[in-house]
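Justification of resources, computational component.

The compute hours requested in this renewal are based largely on the per-chain cost of generating structure records like the one below. Each record pairs the submitted sequence with a full structure-token output. That output is archived, and it is also reused by downstream analysis tasks.
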Amino acid sequence: MGRRGFLVRTGLALSATVLASAYPRAFADEQSPPRTFESWDQVRAQFPLSPQLIHLAGFFLSSHPTPVRNAIERHRAGLDANPIGYWFEHEEKQEARVLQAAADYLGASPTDIALTDSTTMGLGLLYGGLQLRAGQEILTTTHDHYSTETSLRLRAERTGAIVRQIPLYQSLKTVSREQLVESLRMGVAPATRIVAVTWVHSSTGLKLPIHEMARAIQAINRSRAEQDRVIFCVDGVHALGVEDFRLSELGCDFLIAGTHKWMFGPRGTGLVWGHPTAWPVTQAMIPTFNFQAYDLWMENKSSKGLPQSVHMTPGGFHSFEHRWALDEAFTFHRTIGKSKVTQRLYELSQQLKQGLATMPHVTLQTPMSQDLSAGIVCFEVAGLTPRTVVEKLGQRGIVGSVTPYATKYVRLAPSLFNSAGEIEHTLEVIRTLRSS
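The structure output for this chain reads:
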């Protein structure tokens, strides 16, 4: 058994030589034929969603499009037929293939990406392993998700780390990009080492100006020593697969996201991207199965000399048929075109928001401006609880959700498998909703 083929769990330590040799092998066989989509109906046909329903909660957990579904079944069949044989034959090249597809989509290097099973796992691994000196703090906001707050709380309880929360705005009706950036800039204190934010808030649909925030943090860092530099961490799960961006231009230090939502990736997949200069700020929580680390262990040598990023993809055995099919999700998006995806989602969400804004009995919570929103649309209906609204919509074949926060709203999110006609029908139904 070759040690290189033994338990390769991360591309972070793959050397340029290994990458160069692995990727040609990965793409030489099992290559999917070119796919093109000439209409949004063709895109919709890739999803086995029930045609009796209008699906406006696809951001929660994705239906697998045909290329992803076929890849899952191909790998599952191989693993079922000969588990150990198929694993040894495909593990290294499929890991490389997934990492390269993610890197191509993100505009990043595959050696800076760790593979995880979800956004929550990525947040827990990153925040749980943060290295802080005495007196340094983590700055976050009052608008973040349970997973961010809990990961940071557990970190504080275990180590005594200081976590401070700030609001970024007072009212969604008057919020602006400038206010959001200035609130974050003013919130950064001399002791702030980590800034943790969420790009698109699943509570309201608000989208933060991450690039501008990153520039403000970079300006602060120009007067700081390297050991005091502010590290900018972004939960990007509701931006990945919606926004057209390249990590080389975004400006953050870490991006954490699940890939089984807007990306349409296999369920139980995710990633953490880190800038090469930022990875050393965190320590691994779970042993990696990276081949270099494993080789050193078998030789009774320490792996501490390896870059910290080597250790950030958790080891152990995963749902390989799902992880190995993730490259198809990135390819699916790139086949459609990243800019076309963004434009389509913007068009449908704008149609929904504009229609809701005309209804006297509806209060739209998500900002109308596309500069301040992505794909999630949140609102209230006078006299009805959000749960009641979602139930009434469900009775008419429209699938929505309620925001899982203390302040609850109705939440709808058009996806690539939706049509303008479905959005208009949804608006017609909402126009009829009244309290009894």
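Residues 169 and 175 are 6 Å apart (CA to CA). Residues 1-31 have pLDDT under 50 and may be disordered.
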